[in-house]
Amino acid sequence: MTQPPTAAAAQGRPRLVERYRAFLPISDATPSLTLGEGFTPLVRLGRIGGALGVANLYAKVEGQNPTGSFKDRGMVVAVSKALEAGAQALICASTGNTSASAAAYGAAAGLEVVVVLPRGQIAAGKLLQAQVAGAKVVAIEGNFDDALRVVRELAGSAAHPITLVNSVNPYRLDGQKTGAFEVCDDLGRAPDVLAIPVGNAGNISAYWAGFRDYRAAGITESLPRMFGFQAEGAAPIVLGRRVESPETIATAIRIGDPASWTKAVAARDDSGGLIEAVSDDEILAAWRDLARQEGLFCEPSSAASLAGIRRLAAENRLERDATIVCVLTGSGLKDPRTAEASVGSPLVADPTAAAVSAALGW
Ligand code: F0G
C-alpha cells in the first residue's frame, strides 16, 4: 500500500523562487511569499504536431499557475521585493491577467492594490479575480496604453508612495525568466524554437534572458530562435510603428505601444527569430484545436503562439525536426464569453436514459 506523505515530504514541495534562487534577485532579507506558482507542465502536442509533421511540438501550460496565467512568476518576485522595500501599496495597468495576479499576491502580502484597466476590454474572469481579491479597480475610457501611462504617472508622483508592478518593474521580468528555465529542465536541453504571444513584450524578453542565463551558466549548450506573434489588429512591432487603436479578439494582447518593444526586437534579432502577426481567425482556430485535439483549454491570446507556428508550417518555413515549444500563457476559464460564442447550447433532456439517448441521437 502507498504510504501517506510524511511531514518532511509535504514540506519538500519546492518553491519556484528557491529552486531558481541563483538566477533571481532574492536574498535572505527578501520576505518569503508564495501561492504555489510555477512548475507548470510541458505537454507534447501529439495530434496537432502529427498533423503539421512536427514530431517535437510542445505546449508550456501556463494557465496552471495560481491565478491562471504566467504573470504569477514575475509577480511573486516583484511583490516580495516590494515587501522587502517596505511598500504598502501596488499599482498596475492591465489587459486583465497582470491585475488578477497583482490582486492575489497583494492580498497575500497584505498590501493595498490598485488596478487601472481599459473599460469593457477585460475578460470576465480576470476582472472578477481582481475584484474578489479586494483590489481597487478603476476602468478608464481608453486602452491599455493609456492605462499604463496613467499608472506610471501615479507611481512616479510623491503624493502616492506606491509600487508599480507592470513589467517595466525589472523584478517582473526576472521572475518570468523561470518559464525558460523550466522548459530547459523538462526537455534536458534548450528548444530550437520558442513560440510566444506578444503584447506588452515583456514575456518574450524575459524568456530570452532566461535562455541566455542558462547557457551562460553552462546548463544548456544552445539558444532557441524566438518566434513572437502579435494579433493582426494589434501588431506594432510587426508594423514598426505604434498602433493608436489596437483591435483584436485576443484582448490580453490588445496593445499598441509595448513597453518592452526594444527588448523584444533584440530577442528577435539576437536569436535569429521573428515577430509576425496572426489573424483573429487563425488565433481562434488554434484555440479551438488545442481544446478539441489536445485537451488544453487556454485563453484566445495564448493560442497566438500555435497559430503562428501553424502559419509558418503552412508556408513551409519550419524545420520539421525542430523541437518547438509554444507558450500557452493563460487559462481558458479566464474568458468564458469568447468561449460561449464559439459553442452551441447543451443538449437538453428529461432525466431518463431513454431521453438522454434520444437527445444524443443514439
Ligand atoms: N498572453 C496573455 C494571456 C497575457 O495576459 C499577456 C499579457 C500576453 C500573452 C502577452 O505578454 O505582455 O509580456 O508580451 N498581458 C498583460 C496584462 C499585458 O496586463 O495582463 P507580454
Oligomerization state of this entry?
A: single chain
Mean pLDDT: 95
What is Rg? 21 Å
Q: Which hetero compounds are present in the coordinates?
A: ligand F0G
* Helix and strand composition category: alpha/beta
What is the overall shape? globular
Q: The biggest beta sheet, please?
A: 6 strands, mixed
Count of DSSP E strands? 10
Features:
362 residues, alpha/beta, six-stranded mixed sheet, four-stranded parallel sheet, 10 strands, 14% strand, binds ligand F0G
Give an account of the 3D structure.
The protein has 362 residues and is of the alpha/beta class. The protein contains 15 helices and ten strands. The strands form two sheets. It has a six-stranded mixed β-sheet, with helices on both faces. A four-stranded parallel β-sheet has the order 5-4-3-6, sandwiched between helices. The radius of gyration is 21 Å and the shape is globular. The mean pLDDT is 95. Bound molecules: ligand F0G.
What does this entry show, briefly?
The protein contains 15 helices and 10 strands.
Write the layout of secondary structure elements.
Elements: H1 7-11, H2 16-19, E1 42-44, H3 46-52, E2 57-61, H4 71-84, E3 89-93, H5 97-109, E4 112-118, H6 124-132, E5 136-140, H7 144-156, E6 163-164, H8 170-187, E7 193-197, H9 202-216, E8 225-231, H10 236-239, H11 261-271, E9 274-278, H12 280-294, H13 304-314, E10 324-328, H14 336-342, H15 353-360
Helix pairs in contact: 4-5, 4-8, 5-6, 8-9, 9-11, 12-13
Bound molecules: ligand F0G.
